[in-house]
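JOB MANIFEST
job_type = single_chain_structure
chain_count = 1
residues = 278
[input]
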Amino acid sequence: MICADLHVHSDFSDSSLSIAQTLARAERSGLTHLSLVDHDTVAGTSQARELATLTTIQIIPGIEISAQDRSTGKKVHILGYAYQTPASNLTTLCQPTLQRRTQKTLSQVDILIQAGFPLSRQAVLDKAGPTGAIYKQHIMAVLIDLGITDSVYSDLYRTVFKGAGICAGDIDYVDVQDAIAAVRADGGIPVLAHPGQSKVWESISGFAREGLTGIELNHPDHDSSDYGRIRDLADQYDFLLTGGSDYHADYGNGPDIGQVLAPAESLLQMQLMLNRHI
């Protein structure tokens, strides 16, 4: 029986667990297939494949690209699956995003220090994973260590980073069309992540024209109305349906790894799309 969680993160982006720890947890959960879709990086793919040979799990190469729909201004996440390494097009597209995110996070650290929080840049940098990129979650992890808050997505997080918070604001992201094109250029399958969360329904027909070939069905943030809309879109555009837990370990507040799975037919559909073993 295939059990695939195709939306999992590691410390190559914004999870608190290493790839080895994530694989161990995935194996205990009974998964047969796993995709690590770290934000804006494919750097962990080789390590994941190598470590997976010591387990019963098969790795599906993955990435989650932070993008923007220029026509609406909305943030869009594009998942890329089963790309061919070294995935140079994805790396070229996403590396500037990692750099902008790290600089933004460091500026947020400075703002918090000026506001009286007992932070340091080094303490936050020490939380970073192998890519060296840092996220708001790393700031919150330091504040938890200091006893200032008790969880990443606490009231403090919302007060500081959302709305009129002193650290509110975001970086520039790549155009969603470029994200789709980069996945395809590296031989992968571009999939729209959690549309029920991003609320980009009106743009999906345009994404399909740009080469989007899949849409995420099963996700912790989706409700029954989302499932209906997504299935209708899949029928209309012949989209691949995927799914997963969006697991971030201690840096998330959703279900455990393996508690939200891809539809049973996902991997077969991927294989047929790509005409190669995955």
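[summary]
Residues 88-114 form the longest helix (27 residues).
Residues 24 and 195 are 29 Å apart (CA to CA).
exit_status = 0
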